[in-house]
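Lab notes, practical 5.
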Amino acid sequence: MKTGAWIVLAAAAAATVVGCVGLAGSGDPAHRAADEAFPSLAGATEWINTPPLTPAALRGKVVLVEFWTFTCVNWRRESPYVRAWARRYRDKGLVVIGVHSPEFEFEKDGAKVRRAVKDIGIDYPVAVDSRLAIWSAFGNAYWPALYFIDANGRVRASHFGEGDYEASERLLRRLLVQAGATDLGNEGGVAAPTGVEAAADLANLRSPETYVGYGRARGFASPGDLVPDRAHVYSAPAALRLDEWALAGDWIAREDAVVARAAPARVAYRFHARDVNLVMGPATPGAAPRFRVLVDGEPPGADRGADVDGAGLGSLTGSRLYQLIRQRGEITEHRFEIEFLDPGAAVFDFTFG
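Output from the prediction step:
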């Protein structure tokens, strides 16, 4: 994970928050010009919940542009607040636009984006930015990222990463008042998010986001290195140091993922965090490989995440973020293992909370 920050372009302010990984090769959004014009929204492959929108058509509205991608846990933890603002201030002149800019290849699939919009309950406009045209127009580099645009079509502030929700809402209210809105009601009041959307346990979060494809892998501890784009049988050490991970069984390592060629096949990770999440899915569309999760060799029981049962069993129902562990008691260091009981699982990225 990275540190997120406020960048207020019309008035100086700053804050430190939990952030998320940006897209390699993207520009630094901190270098954007102050008080610049609303960047282009052209280039979306489709729009959801709305006809196509343009900066000119939105003149007179306060606009919050939110960059997201559906496997990003940092965005999921921000999403309840953005959904609440969209509902609360829609009739007061606020337009929220979600720009879905993909990180992984499978996130470019419009059908998967539409399913995520429906499952998560997003009812505001969404631009499907599968070619990263809008991402590039904004010079963005992070998920999640918020851009605050006033009724005159000027970008007034940006926020990168999670957190600072009270400050974000205060800024939206200030821009709405400047645009002539009245009777805004009380701010805040978002119900405590649950499941994968619950705030991270920062006091106990020691493990970083970890990619397992050879393009960005770190902490790999199986004997030898990842063998790019060829089948290879790996073994896992009996002991791992904190934030080391290993493969066991027959795998093929791709640039963005590792794919199990035969069953059983395992991934082990030594972690320190309340939550263990994993971005993964079936390598073959329509398949549903089964898996089992263990913590220190035992089923998770009450420490199971939303996507497994107490015995640690689950299946890959699609390519997405899976919550596998949520510890209920004291948070300490553990060895996590996921064993795939069928071939064809593609594993992309560990995140923690």
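Observations recorded by the TA: Residues 57 and 153 are 10 Å apart (CA to CA). DSSP finds four helices and 19 strands in the chain.
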